[in-house]
Amino acid sequence: MLSAVMVVEGVLRSPDGEGHFDIGWGLYQALARNSRLYLLSHAWTEQDSALWLAKRSLTGHLGYLHQPEPGPAGRLDVLDRVRSWRIGLVLEPDPSCAAAELAAGWNTALITHAAYTQPRWRPDYTGGPRPWDQLADAIEHQAALRMTDARTQEQP
Questions:
Q1: pLDDT for 73-95, tens place per residue?
Q2: Are 50 and 64 in contact (CB under 8 A)?
Q3: Is residue 110 within a helix (H) or strand (E), and if so which, with residue range?
Q4: Which helix (H) or strand (E) holds 74?
Q5: d(CA 130, CA 133)
């Protein structure tokens, strides 16, 4: 039976609040029924996470892992501590952590949302705010693409 680790922030729960992602909810339900699922959180303590999960009747996981140190090094440290569980899959929302996990030999599924959960996780993120002209150009470019998209012109 597969053992999996799901990072709570960014896969199951929004990192900026208490809302959940529907895709993460579905993944949780499927993995909790068909695998040994462990949850990993770097933002909340086990007690805070337990309360959030209980309110939503998410009780099918086998364990909880807390990551006290942020970033890829902290994530690898937590995963290394559970190596004996033969974790077969890590569900990861952070590309830098996913890259480190793959390099360390973990099977990793990078979960991204169309509306990226944090700007710094976007592939085109440059590390600072974009100048206004670039932002205006990007908006105009997207509007032009929408206007020329054949899918939006089709009649039902």
A1: 999 999 988 865 788 999 999 99
A2: yes
A3: strand 108-110
A4: helix 71-81
A5: 8
